Amino acid sequence: MSEHSPPLRVPDSADPQAADAHPLARRGRPALVDPAALADCALDLFVEKGYAATRLEDVALAAGVSKGTLYLYFDSKAALFAAVVRQGLVPALAGGEALLDNHRGSGADLMRELLWGWWRLIGATRLGGLPKLMVAEARNFPDIAELYHREVMARGCALIRRAIDYGHARGEFRVAGDPCTVQAVMAPLLLRVLMKHSFGCVDHAAPARDASAESTDIAASIEFVIRALEHD
């Protein structure tokens, strides 16, 4: 897939004309399968087994549908993965962009809201397994790597860059949002979620940490980042 290739197409179940054009609908059979539910089942399998090991047959079985039914909505595993990304990760990024557009307070408060929002919506949920999946499998699957980079990583980096620039323009942050600073801001939470979805399975101390303790750790990481950005 080249830089100018069109995005992978994900069927829009909310489009009534698309439903009318459905081959089952033309034969008078109602389309009862929710594509969002199929993507939700796929998320669990992608996170648990990885991209390469997940088969469309596995997703169909988990969703309680036939493989043929799954193919009516997603013609490839790449299209199904695109739906998982667009259903789970993209709305969180859109929410962060809206938050930034409407923020009128300090740069530190903006950064707290953005980083905490990322953790609540992604890092602390099943979606947190997707960054680990991409680190492990991006090189072997350039089509999904390009999709993820374009729709998640590039957009997330742009959001953090704008937030840093906001604080810098107000005289609160010592630096502007250059690429190295953006990576430094994102690194602590990304590393935490990668460790959680990799070595978490053998870290026997991890299950003993309750949600309150985890929140304390996340708060410390976020405050560390903000203090690094602020003037002395």
Let me know the number of strands: 0
Content of β-strand: under 5%
From the helix content, strand content and strand pairing, which structural class follows?
A: mainly alpha
How would you characterize the largest beta sheet? none
Number of helices: 12
Shape: elongated
Q: What distance lies between the first and last C-alpha atoms, to the nearest angstrom?
A: 46 Å
Radius of gyration: 20 Å
The proportion of residues forming helix, as a percent range, comes to 55-70%
* Helix-strand pattern: HHHHHHHHHHHH
Mean pLDDT: 85
Q: pLDDT below 50 for ≥5 consecutive residues: which ranges?
A: 1-30
Polypeptide structure, described:
The protein is mainly alpha-helical and 232 residues long. It has helices at residues 16-20, 23-26, 35-49, 56-63, 67-73, 77-88, 90-102, 107-123, 129-137, 142-169, 179-196, 211-229. The longest helix has 28 residues, at 142-169. The chain is elongated. Mean pLDDT is 85; it is low at 1-30.
Index terms:
single chain; 232 residues; mainly alpha; 12 helices; 0% strand; elongated
